[in-house]
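Milestone M4 deliverable, item 7.
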Amino acid sequence: MNIWQTITGSDLTREWKAFEARAAALPADYRAAWEQVKGHLFPYGDFTGRNLLPILDSALALLEETAADGQPVREVLGDDIKGFCVALAGGEGARTYRDRWREQLNRNVARELARLGG
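Output delivered:
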């Protein structure tokens, strides 16, 4: 990846289109599960979502393999897709982008208060 791709995000667009093309080949119940997986993982992404690409790639590969084996999607992901995604993202208590932004805001406010008060 070069600097231009990083700035424009063209590498992300290319990878995202590849993910969606792979997902389109899945059976309908697996495509629905893929949509849920994406929705539950997005809060764990950074500003660009680049950190989620390996996780999404692994999740999609799991769906592809198990669909090819003919396993029901519920057997693969269970009934708690959100819990499955939390485990993929690093377990309960994993920091979301909201947590990181809240910490940054608190640091900035504390720095400004210290500057004004002292």
